Automatic annotation (TrEMBL):
Pfam families: CRISPR_assoc. InterPro entries: CRISPR-assoc_prot_Cse3. This is CRISPR-associated protein, CT1974. Signal peptide: none annotated. It comes from Rhodospirillum rubrum (strain ATCC 11170 / ATH 1.1.1 / DSM 467 / LMG 4362 / NCIMB 8255 / S1). It comes from the Bacteria.
Amino acid sequence: MSHITRAELSRDTGARKALTALLRDQGGTDGGHRLVWTLFADDPKASRDFVFREAEPGRYLIVSARPPGDGQGLWRLETKPYAPAFREGQRFGFTLRANPATAVKQAGETRGKRVDAIMHAKTRSATPLTVEDRERVALDWLLDRQQGFGVLFERALCSAGGYRQVRVPRGGKAITFSVIDYEGVFTVRDPGLLGQALVRGIGKAKAYGCGLMLLRRLAE
């Protein structure tokens, strides 16, 4: 059984000071990533088993295999069981914040190297990419994966905007990845695959707030 949680940082001054100290003890800060990890600190050896999105500063939506726990008293949590059920033919509106990365093989390589899909398109283009070009590349990336998500996206009703590069300190260095905000409409084709995608998340950089798809039911 998975869980969905609305998590809001406590406004209590003492709690916020304790949170600042906790993040410092963990070796630095990188936004929501470290904040949300504090809710799953009961097992330091456990792999990440949640996806999340920052709704606004200090407020998060989280889908997780384990229920979150607030041992420090830093959060206000509303957690419910999460077991969405779908049937083929249903239509949904969606929003998704995703990292559009793709694997590109070079000559002689057996495994592809993960690259930013939009930057890759830019290097292959003879002219600078326009905003429309970036949206087309980003939508191509999403629609190319629709079969694995168990859906059929309605391209004419989908958009991809807000392209930006995110830089996160890590181990004395930094990792950089791109983020796109998608929204649109799809029809369910495989309920089981869709359910898995919602729990596991979509794309890469899920530890940093990407990959959680939110839905709203539409008339068929």
